[in-house]
Structures are given as structure tokens and as C-alpha cells.
Amino acid sequence: PERSESLTATLTANNRTLVSHSSPGRQSGVTGQSEASPSSPGRQSGVAGQSEASPSSPGRQSGVTGQSEASPSSPGRQSGVAGQSPKPALPPGVVPPVEPSKVKTTEDLYLTGLRLEQFHNPSREPDPYYEEALKRDPTDIRNNTALAILKIKRASFEEAEALLRKAVAHVQANYTRAKDGDSLYYLGLALKYQHKLDEAETWFQRAAWNQAWSAAANYQIAEIKGQQNKLDEALAYVDRALQTNALNTRALFLKSGILMRNGLGSEAAALRKQIRAIDPIDLRGFSDASELAVVATKMPNEALELAVSCLYSGLRKEAEFLLDRMPVKSPMVHYFRGYLTQVNGQAQTAAAHFKRGSAMPIDYVFPFQIEAVDPLRAAIAANPADPRPPYYLGLLLYDRQPAEAVKLWEKAVALDPALAVAHRNLAVAYARQDNGVPKAITAMEKAIASNPNDALYLFELDRLYEFAQVPVAKRVALFDQHAETAKKRDDAMSRVVTLRNLTGNYDEAISILSQRHFHLWEGGARFNVQDAWTDAHLLRGHRKMAEKNFSGALADYLKATQYPDNIEVTRGFRGGRYAEAHFYTAQALEALQRPAEAKKEYEAAAEALLGTEENPHPGIDSGAALLYYQAKSLEKLGQTARARKLYQQLIDTATAATRATHNDFFAKFGEARSPKQRAAQASYIAGLGYLGLKNTPQAKAQFQKALALNPYHLEAQSQLPQGQK
Predict the structure, then answer these.
(1) What's the pLDDT band for 17 if we cut at 50, 70, 90?
(2) Residue 32 has what pLDDT?
(3) Where does the pLDDT of residue 525 fall: very low under 50, low under 70, confident under 90, or very high at 90 and above?
(4) Torsion angle defined by CA atoms of residues 531, 536, 542 and 546, in that order, rounded to the nearest 10 degrees
(5) Alpha-helix runs per DSSP H in 360-471
(6) CA distance 279 to 254
(7) I need a surface site. Which of 1, 323, 357, 616 has the fewest CB within 10 A?
(8) Residue 419: its pLDDT value, please?
(9) Contact 514/564 with Cβ under 8 angstroms?
């Protein structure tokens, strides 16, 4: 596998991990990078194999009194026999962080921010916790440093410098030689990225006094000396770095390069062998030039990383050698080549390289190295009329500096109005701004006008239309106009199916779902063909029931949860809409005068397991509406008291959901619904509760409220006669 390890990537010194500048951070959804790109994995948690914990059930109940199946905290099965030790208590579950203003101390704010960095969560960012701490104490060393590190990762070096100067002023007050060198080191790093090399060296020297930072700081000084063409001094500082971290492959490679320059080829080769022994897939441990040529051909990003390492450690001739021999599959090769020649004082040659880079196709190009900022800004300065460099720089910065990325993309489309992908990226950015959906729709419509052959644009525009509550007719017209394009992607066709259900064209929806192979993936919340299949059959069944075609309705109700292989749906241990399907199947059987079979269906509905594997208690986003069908089934079975409790539970669940002020902390992959959609679903669920309790006026009001919030809510539509919607 390719690795994206740049010159200023992760340094490790005495188990302390420093900043990684080659990681792009959070996934932004910006076009230019394919899904699951090896060079851009998203923001990592910092703990191998560890993910955000969530409350879980201690194991399924076995049905035997006093006995349950073993859970992770309970080895073996508890027998419930007298005299046996009691079942160990489960550890407490993870508690979501409170709002920053409600955290009591600046230390707790700091620790909360660190935990959010370590365990990435789509609903929380660490910044507000550090910022709240600094409101209370602007001189707080740890919070200034933690926030500054985030700024460095996002290439906001000037902001990082300002924060770190506050920290170092405090930590060095009264002529104190700091025991903890974090802020000293990162101030040096922020200055180095601004090319303030002499001052950066000063702070690295101070940080190197601390044993924990000695290897990292001395290596950074070695790079500075290399950039200043003081290779003898660079070699001395590399040796210092290796004294406290002999496994630093970057330091070993820099030393190898300097020895090669000095004509000590055999010693340099021995160092590269050390690198290969430490990390067998690190390209720095190459055996000879022929291996480099093979890697550069098969894995150009890997070779580009090595060239960048050479460039920013002062080994410019080696960087030039690599760039000249790389197969040019990405314009970034030309941009780096142009920057290198510009640094060497060859402005005309640099301009020629920038021009070649901009002439290359933009498909599958996504700059990921923080070091790419300088070459792209140099290309913009060399030719301000060229739209490509600002487009590429926007890709690099969007996840780090979204406002700056928007400015760059706006500049790109002003220079080239036909640059469809830049319009699309602007739509993504605008949609995340307050009241930005109208601008996002305009930008996406321009993207489709420039490139009507990209099905992703159709999917994303329809989602914006849905959010803006555009009339269904306009949404249908979009896909009718681009019918062939929509067929290129499953997510686009899923929108077609949803629209067919919304407009009552159930036969067509079922036909698409029966014939097309839909491919699902982990976190595939972009579309839900399982619900679409169930909706189409249930709604068509309701229509047949109204027409007294009870046999036809029964067939549809039975098929509602019998999913064909081509839509890749499996039946889980719990969850799904089986309670709803069983209830309506029973209704059809009753209409056909088959009471014994109907009773079995009511029993199946009442016994269906709801919720999810992670949380068996159904919420508004995890099957709470199905409690209504269980309650109706219980009524049919004569258990009215239990039914009334479920109806009240529906109302209570909806009420609790309306009080929530933010997305679910435990939602995976950012799957939580928009606030309007959640509010609409809560109103619908409350309406079901009131309907079960025979409070018809309240039920009607809640269903109408749900449709006011979300006119596309199929279930709420089905509960109201046409004239009351």
C-alpha cells in the first residue's frame, strides 16, 4: 500500500507524537479525490484499532430466568445458582461531552479537546473547548499550544505563531528554562513553515534542551541547515537527532544524502539498509536507482513524497533528479518542478513547468501535502489568469481553511466559468454555511450545465432540492432530463426510486429496484434502497386494499420485507420494518377472512425486535415509529394496557427528541438527519402516539406539522386524507 509520508510528517520522540502535516484531516466531500483514497484517509483517532465507544447491550437474554448469554465483561455464562458469585458490573458507558460553556475548569476543557482529537466524532470539534478555555485564561499554556497545533495542521501558520508566542511568554516567564518544550518546538515549526528560518532555529534550539524534544528539534535544525546549504552543520545536527532516536528514518535518509554528496557512497548505502531494516516499505531505504525508477513508475505519489522530502531538507539536486525521472501522471509533478527551478533562480523555466501542469487533465488530482501550498501559490503568482492552481489549492485547503478554499474556487470559476468541478465544490462549501443552500443550488446547477454527464452532480443537487423543499415536479424533471446520466450511479438512481414513490409510481419504483444491482458499503447513508423497497410495496398494498383487492395487497405486504439479492440487504438480529409489514399482512388476512393466519402475523409484529444492535431502545432515527404497529397488534391480541404504554412511549420519545439541541454524539459517519428532518420525524412519531390513544385532532395536527417541516415525508402523507395534507 502507498503511504503518504511527507517531509514534515509525524515525528516520534520518546513516545510523544508530533504534528503530521501530510494528513489532510477530515473528509470534506470535495471532488478531486476518489473515495477511500490511500493518500487521504481522513482524520485518524491516534489509537490503532480504536474507535469512539458507544453504549452497548450486555448480551442477548437467553430466555432462562436468572441466566443470560456471556458479555465482554462477563466470562462464561451466569447460571443464577445460589452461592455463585454475582455477575460483574459493566463499566460505565461513554458520556458525551457537554457544551464548552458548561465545562467547569480549563483543565477539563483541555482534556475534552484532546479526547475529541483522539477519537474523531462527526458531531463535535475540539476547537471550541480550547477557545472557551482561552476566553477564561488567555495565557493558558496547554490550551494555547493545543489550539496552535490544530492551526499548524490546517496551514494557518500565522495564527499558530500568535497563540504559541502567548504560550512561550508564559512558560519562559522570569527567565525560566522550560521543563516542557511543546510550545517551544511548535513555535519553531510555525516559523519554519513561514520560511523564518533563523528565528525558527532559535526556538528549536531551546526545545532541544528538553530530552523529550531533542531528536525532533535537532532534526528540524538539520533541515534548516540543509535549506541554507550548510550541509556540514546539517550533518552534525542529524547526528544529534539520531543519538536520541536511532530509528528516525527521515534523519537516516538525510544523513545518507549528505554522505552521498560528500562522495561516501558505501556509508550512505549502509544507512539506507538500516532504513530498510527498520521499515521495509519506506522508499528512503531504496537499494539503487533502478528501484527508484520502478517505484516512480508504479507508485508516483510515493516517489513524489521522496522528492518533497529532498526538496525541503536542502537536497535540491536529489529532488531535481527524482522529478526529472518521474512519469508525469499528475500536474503536481510539474508544479513542484516549477517551484524548485524558481527557488534556484530560473523564473522562465519555472513558468514553463507551471504552464505544463495547468494543461494536464484535472481528473483524480487531489493535492494532499502541506508542502504543496508553496508551489501552488508560486504558480498563482506566476500566472494570475490561470484557473487551475487556485482550484488545486482550494482542494488542499478546504478541510483546513474552508473560507480560503471558497475564495480560491470562486477565483477559479471567475477565470473559467466552465470548470464544472469547481462549481460543484463551491456547492458543497456553500451548503455547509448558514443559509447557504440557495447559493449551493445555483452553483450545482452551473456544474450540471457545464458537465451534464456526471451522475454525482444529479444526486447532490436533488439532496439540495430536498433540503430546500423544492416542488417534487422540479425534482422529477431533473432526472427525466438526465435519465441516462442518472443510470451511471446507484445513489442517483436511489433518488429516482424515492421520487417514484413520492409521486405514487410504485410499479416503476419496484421495477427499478428489481432490475438494477445496487451496491452498498459501510457507512452508506447516501441512500437507503431497503426502505425504498418496503415503501413501494406497502404503499402499493395500501392502494390495493382501498380498491378491495385484498389478495393483491397481501402479496405486496408479504414482499415488503423479502428483499432481492440485487439490492444487497440482509436481515439483522434486530431492526428493520418487520413489525409494520407483519401488521399490514395481518390486516389483509383479516380482510380475506383468514383469522388464524392473521393472529400469527399480529403475534410476529408484537414480538419483533426493534432498535439497533448498538442500542435496543428505538429512537426517532432507529425505529421508534414501529412501536405503533406493535401497539396496534397488541390491541388486536387483547393486550390493550401494554398497547397504551407503547402509544405513550411514542409521544415521550418524540418529546425528548424535540428537546435535543444537536446531533447524536454516537451517530456513525455523520449519518444524523438534518434538524428539520429530525423535527418532522418527531412530529410524525408523536402523531402515531396520539392516533393510538384516539386523540385524532392532536394526531392530525402532528402529521400536518411533519409535512410542513418535510413535505416529502411518505409515512405522514399516508396517514392523512388528500385534502388534509
Answers:
(1) very low
(2) 43
(3) low
(4) 160
(5) 373-382, 388-397, 402-415, 420-431, 437-450, 455-467
(6) 16
(7) 1
(8) 97
(9) yes
Give the chain's length.
Answer: 725
3-class secondary-structure state, position 390: helix
* Contact indicator for 178, 152 with CB cutoff of 8 Å: no
Q: Are 201 and 188 in contact (CB under 8 A)?
A: yes
Residue type, position 653, single letter = T
Between 688 and 723, the more confident residue is 688
What one-letter code names the amino acid at 385? A
Give the SS3 label for residue 246.
coil
d(CA 532, CA 520): 14
Say yes or no to pLDDT of 699 above 50.
yes
| Residue type at 419 in one-letter notation | L
User: 298: exposed, middle or buried (C-beta count within 10 Å: 0-12, 13-18, 19+)?
Assistant: exposed
Contact 219, 238 (CB under 8 A): yes
Phi, psi of 680 (to 5 degrees): -65, -45
- The partner residues of 12 in beta bridges, in order of sequence, read 17
Q: Are 376 and 339 in contact (CB under 8 A)?
A: no
User: Looking at this protein, which amino acid is placed at residue 89?
Assistant: A
Is the torsion defined by CA of 347, 348, 353, 358 positive or negative? Answer: positive
Does 75 have pLDDT greater than 80?
A: no
Residue 181 DSSP SS3: coil
Query: Model confidence at 73, in pLDDT bands (50, 70, 90)?
Result: very low
State which amino acid sits at residue 190.
A
DSSP, collapsed to helix, strand or coil, labels residue 309 as helix
pLDDT at 253 over 60: yes
Give the DSSP H or E segment for 13. strand 12-13
- What is the C-alpha to C-alpha distance for residues 631 and 606, in angstroms, rounded to an integer? 7
Percent share of the chain, pLDDT over 90: 69
Q: How far apart are CA 104 and CA 39, in angstroms?
A: 39
Residues 6+ apart with CB under 8 A from 278: 247, 249, 252, 285
Residue 576 has pLDDT above 70, yes or no: yes
- Please work out, in degrees rounded to the nearest 5, the angle formed at the alpha carbon of residue 38 by the alpha carbons of 45 and 46: 15
Is residue 723 within 8 A of residue 704, CB to CB? The reply is no
What is the model's pLDDT at position 115?
A: 95
The pLDDT value given to residue 16: 35
C-alpha cell at 589: 388476512
Q: What amino acid is encoded at 282 in this protein?
A: D
- Furthest-apart CA pair in the chain: how many Å? 96
Q: How far is CA 445 from CA 8, 421, 441, 454, 478, in A?
A: 40, 12, 6, 12, 10
Asked if pLDDT for residue 284 goes beyond 80, the answer is yes
Q: 61: which strand partners?
A: 68
Amino acid at 14: N
If we measure between CA atoms, which residue out of 373, 370, 372 comes closest to residue 10? Answer: 370
Check residue 63 and give its pLDDT.
Answer: 36
CA torsion, points 696, 697, 701, 707, in degrees to nearest 10?
40
**pLDDT over 60 (residue 122):** yes
Our measurement of the distance from residue 230's CA atom to the centroid of its chain's CA atoms, rounded to an integer in Å, reads 43
CA distance 560 to 554: 10
**Cell numbers at 720, concatenated:** 392523512
